[in-house]
Amino acid sequence: MTVSMPAPVIFTKNLTRRFGPVTAVDGLSLEVQRGEIFGLVGPDGAGKSTSLRMICGLDKPTSGEASVGSFDVLRDTAAVKERIGYMPQKFSLYADLSIDENLKFFARLHRVSKRDRDAYVPELLQMTALSPFRDRLAGQLSGGMKQKLALMCTLLHRPQILVLDEPTNGLDPISRRDLWFLLYKLANEGTALLISTAYMDEAARCHRVGLMDRGHLILCDSPDRMANVIHESCYEVSGPDRRALHTALESCEGVVRVERCGSTLHIFADPIRVSRDGLLERLRAASVYVTSCEQIVPSLEDVFIASVARSDARGNRNG
C-alpha cells in the first residue's frame, strides 16, 4: 500500500531571479510542509532574501515556478496574500504609535474586522508577554520587543504560512531564545514557517535546512542528517601557536582542508589515510605543540564549508 505525502504548502521549482548579468537565485527547488520550520541558511548575498520575496510574490522570478497553499504566486496573488504572513528584515513599525495602536493599524491594513482583532489581540499579547507594555510607544521598545510586535502584526490575519527574513538579526541571546519559543509554538499549532538566517546555531533549531551559496541551494536535509554528507573525518585541534599549527596541518598527507573555528582549527581529512594518532605524530615531528586533538561530529558550519568546497570543485571541473 502506497502512503501519499500531504501536498507541500510552499513549493518552488527551478525558481530563478536575475538582475541584469547577476543571477541572485539560480534554480531554487524546495518544499515546506504544514507545521514545519524550514531554514534557508547562508551568508549575506547568498540569495535568501530574494528567494523569500519571490515566494511571497513581491519579486517576479525570471523563470521557474512557485506556489503557496496550492496557489500560484503570480496568477493568484490575492489568495497568496491571504494565506501568507511576511516579515522582512526591517519591519515598518510606527515608532510614534503604541503597541496597541500599531496592532490596530495593521489589523485595518490586513482587513481584519474589529471583532476578530479584539478577540485575537489579547491572545497575541499573552503569547509574546507584551500585555504589560501595550501602551508603550514602539520607538521605546527594546530590539526583542520590537521583533515580537512585528511578529504580532504579521500574525493578525491568522496566516497559514509565515515567511520571516532573518527575524532575530541583531537581537541579544535572551530575545532570540524568546522569539524561537514563539516560532516553535506556531509550528506546533500547524503553521508552516520559512525562515532565512545567517546563524548556524539557529539553523540547528529548524526541522529542515537548505544551505544556500551564491544563489544555489547546495544541500537540503534535517540538521541531524547533514553531518552524514561529509565524507572526510573531522578533527578539532588547538595549540598555543595557531599559525604554526595551521601550516603544519596543511602539509600533512591526507588532510583535505584546515579551517579556523573560533580559537581552534577544524581539520577535514581522508579517513583511510589519517587518524588522530597519526596527526599527533606528524605534528610532533614538525615540533608543533598541541593542546588538544579530538575527532568530532561535524557541525552545521563544517557541513556548509565542506559543501561549498565540494560545489566549487565541481564547478572548476565543469569549467
Can you describe this structure?
The protein is of the alpha/beta class and 319 residues long. It folds into two domains: 10-221, 3-Layer(aba) Sandwich (Rossmann fold); 228-318, Alpha-Beta Plaits (2-Layer Sandwich), CATH 3.30.70. It is built from eleven helices and 14 strands. The protein has helices spanning 48-55, 77-83, 99-109, 114-128, 143-155, 173-188, 200-203, 223-226, 242-250, 276-285, 300-318; strands at residues 10-19, 22-32, 37-41, 63-68, 71-72, 84-87, 161-165, 192-197, 208-213, 216-221, 233-238, 255-261, 264-269, 292-295. Helix 3 runs parallel beside helix 5, helix 4 packs antiparallel against helix 5 and helix 5 runs parallel beside helix 6. The radius of gyration is 23 Å and the shape is elongated. The protein starts with 9 loop residues before the first strand and ends with a helix. The model has no long low-confidence stretch (mean pLDDT 90).
Structure, briefly:
This protein has 319 residues and is an alpha/beta fold. It contains 11 helices and 14 strands.
What are its keywords?
alpha/beta, Rossmann fold, Alpha-Beta Plaits, 4-stranded antiparallel beta sheet, 319 residues, elongated, 6-stranded mixed beta sheet
Strand content range: 25-35%
- Total beta strand runs: 14
Strand order of the largest sheet: 6-7-8-3-9-10
Identify the CATH class of the largest domain.
Alpha Beta
What is the string of SSEs from the N terminus onward?
Answer: EEEHEEHEHHHEHEHEEHEHEEHEH
CATH architecture of the largest domain: 3-Layer(aba) Sandwich
The name of the CATH topology of the largest domain is: Rossmann fold
Q: Give me the number of helical elements.
A: 11
- SS class: alpha/beta
- Helix % is 25-40%
Count of domains: 2
Q: Calculate the mean pLDDT score and round it.
A: 90
**What is the terminal-to-terminal distance?**
45 Å
Biggest sheet features: 6 strands, mixed
Low-confidence stretches: none
- CATH H-level name of the largest domain... which superfamily? P-loop containing nucleotide triphosphate hydrolases
C-alpha Rg (nearest Å): 23 Å
Overall 3D shape: elongated
